[in-house]
Amino acid sequence: MADCSATGTAIDRVFHSAVSGLAQQSDNGASRHAMKALGSFVGNTAATADIMGAGVMPSGPMETLRTGGGMMPMSTQFAPANISHPADLHMRNQRMNHQSAHLMHMPPQQMHQHMMNQQMMQSQMMMQSQMQYQMQMQQMQMAAMVEHQMAQQRLSAKQSVQDDQVLDETVLEDDVVTVDEEVDQLRHEGITDHASIERLAQAWRDAEAEYAAEFDDEYDVSNMGGLYDNVNEPSQSIAGRARLNVDTEYEFSPQSQTYGCTITPFTDIAPQELNYPDNLYERGLEHFNAGEIAPAILCFESTLRNIDPEHADAWRMLGKCHTENDADQKAITCWLKSLEKDPYSSETLLALVVAYVNELDWEKAVETLKLWVGNHPLYAGMDNLKSKDDLYGSSDIDGELEGDIRGLNHSTMVKMRDVERLLLSALDYNKDDDAAADVYEALGVVYNVSRDYDAAVDSFKRALLVRPNDYQLRNKLGATLANSNRSEEALPEYHAALKLKPKYTRGWLNMAISHSNLRNYSQAARCYLQTLSLNPEAKHVWSYLRIALTCDEKWDLLPLAASQNLNAFHEHFDFVEY
Amino acid sequence: MSSIPEVFAAMGEAVAGDGGKALQRKFKGTVTFTITPENKTYSLDLSSPTSTVSEGDAFDSKADLAVTCSEEIMMKMINKEIQPQQAFMKGMLKIKGKMALAMKLTNVLAATRKKLPKAKL
């Protein structure tokens, strides 16, 4: 301790010569604070000692306290310069507290032995922990602490007599249980009894990782039937600036085989000889605009199968049909095919972004968004801002935390902020209203990804100023409001959208969800039924209907829902069959 | 967003059928959820071939695992705003019973999340 103070005073002299009396005073203030902290710490450990009733306890932490105390004066000399120290001390206190709490679980007779090991290791650990802590402040705090205790536990378990006890337990368990899994579980339980907190946290993290690996965490609405199938489309890397590789094949519906043919096909007429009207695509468009999605789909599919498989617009419209039907996965496949033929279509690209967002595939959404901006004719002259963050990694720890919690990985978060900047600069670049509406729409989508819901709402509202009759924009605004707990405000938007297009399936579905959020379960059920009448293929909607009925306590209607008998619901709810 | 009754109704959907069988593989047991402050209880039964979620305490306090938390925390966990282990560390989530089952809690939550309706852009 003498050494410390010697060097301390030397540096102190230099320090004081640089700064006048104030430094002296704040030094004292800091050391007073440190002493106070130490005092409370001693009080704490004394209290835990009482609870445990083991007289041997206090010596352990006291010893380290002395060593810890020894280090104190030196560091407090620099207190004014290094503001983090009180926090540093507090951190170490916490750690030590937890360690002593942890020791509570060991039976008293082992205490002494433990104490020896404790003291040996604790000084070592003090060094280690200081370094660790300084490197990663916030999020590693818990993890490091837990890991220390785990390692310590293992180490001490090896050296103490208690080891025999644990072995005995597992031997006993082997005798009793035959199935491997259960042995694992029981052993698990045996250990957790001794150190619940740390073990539990570790196990939870493992379970999460395991679960995420086994069950794809993406919310795959259109694939509800195969809920836990790891349906992974082979990753579609967006190679090059505009080419998108499509590995999944689109499955045509059987009816579109010879749909719209001008002569009635006989079985012995070869397919090539069948004649199709030239305006099949246009007819599809008419159906779509009238809200008749099913015939529209047939027209487009037939066009693609029988007239022109390269018809990029037909693929695009087909995608649109599917998205109106709330089948985003199919829509994505169609749009990717459309982009194969026509890689620069901004409409397709933007629609693709929205679909990815709905499917919670943030990475692809952001990448496609970049393509959208890059390929948009109005922004051709704009400089492409390079991502500066990518070069320097990121010191944005907060961003990482935030991204993790929201299921976004860090690099995607960075790319997303990038795109946001790109879009904002695009607004400056081209002040034309129409172009601005596009950008506002894209911005709204981006903000949905980052969950900046307020900003998203604002962006969509501005887009609507330019295009008040765009029913899809209304829906987007409504969905954003609903997802940010403003379902009441969402309802008028949905109404507006449905007024513009009464057969807008997605509109009905979203409205149902909002009613459900507002606990209007019977209204919600009505809207779900309406959705189903427009699109009987939507299996997940039956599931939502069941949820609404359960919440509404209409259990007698559940069997009807289970059997998917739409007609039977007419007498209970008022909805129109299209 | 959603409400507690909806969450548990969705959980019921998640454990019915194939999804339930997958969960059962990992997780045989019974769980009671108690949501404060109204102290409503919901019981999740994954021990029998037909898994169910029902309101009220179906196991007469003899469930394998008892989970207690406030409505706010439950909604936060569902919305992925907080992880179960964080809630537990902060003392906002209380667990009694088989720890092994508690560890699988995240699986159940994830399955429930998938069944909850979400508005689409």
How many strands in all of chain A?
0
Structural class of chain A: mainly alpha
CATH class of chain B: Alpha Beta
Can you count the helices of chain B? 6
What is the terminal separation of chain B in angstroms?
Answer: 16 Å
CATH level 3 topology of chain B: Nonspecific Lipid-transfer Protein, Chain A
Enumerate the spans of chain A where pLDDT stays under 50 for 5 or more consecutive residues.
1-8, 18-35, 37-87, 166-194, 216-246, 385-405
Oligomeric form: heterodimer
Q: How would the global form of chain A be characterised? A: globular
H/E series of chain A, N to C? Answer: HHHHHHHHHHHHHHHHHHHHHHHHHH
Mean pLDDT, all residues of chain A: 69
Gyration radius of chain B, to the nearest Å?
Answer: 13 Å
State which percent range the strand residues of chain B make up. Answer: 15-25%
- Overall, the morphology of chain B is globular
Mean pLDDT of chain B: 82
DSSP strand tally of chain B? 5
**Uncertain runs of chain B with pLDDT below 50, 5 residues or more?**
none
Alpha-carbon Rg of chain A, integer? 33 Å
Instruction: Report the order of strands and helices of chain B.
Output: HHEEEEHHEHH
CATH superfamily grouping of chain B: SCP2 sterol-binding domain
